[in-house]
Design brief:
Blueprint lengths: L1 H12 L8 H7 L9 E6 L5 E8 L4 E7 L2 E6 L4 H10 L27 E11 L4 E10 L3 H12 L10
Antiparallel strand pairs: 1-2, 1-5, 2-3, 3-4, 5-6
Helix pairs in contact: 3-4
Amino acid sequence: MFRFLLAAAILASTPALAADDDWPSIKGARLSGQQPFAAFAVYKADGAVTGVSLYPRETGFAARRLAGQVESWTTTERCPALSAALEGLEDLPIPRLDVPGLGRTPRGTAMALDGDSYFLWADGARWGGGAHAATLEVRAVNGSPLADWIDQALTSAGGCWSAARP
């Protein structure tokens, strides 16, 4: 009985491992009651997770990063590299739908199941030059345009993060 209680106490005190279950909390994390307009995350094959939630402000954006269990913050005012990365987000090519059996041949290779996973969610997507609003969620793997954008955004904003909440 003692061993069971000890094992339960150890499990209860251990932070939960990051998993796809973190994704709803990354894209749903609020800043002073405000929902993010977008979020992105990378789930590395080795189990490491980094997620970023983005919040519009009067001037620029605030960003919350969750790397493992560590939360940190920055703004586009403090981090011009993040601002540049967000500008590039508007140019990110979005995949087209490929309906099996209707004559189009898929391009590229099959999705790797053992690589890193990249997620993007945005509530501010638009069709037709802004005429129609949409919510967008894309999941991709290594080597995709989304993976390249997320890796570049995280690298370029790497030194901008601090524990100070905006």
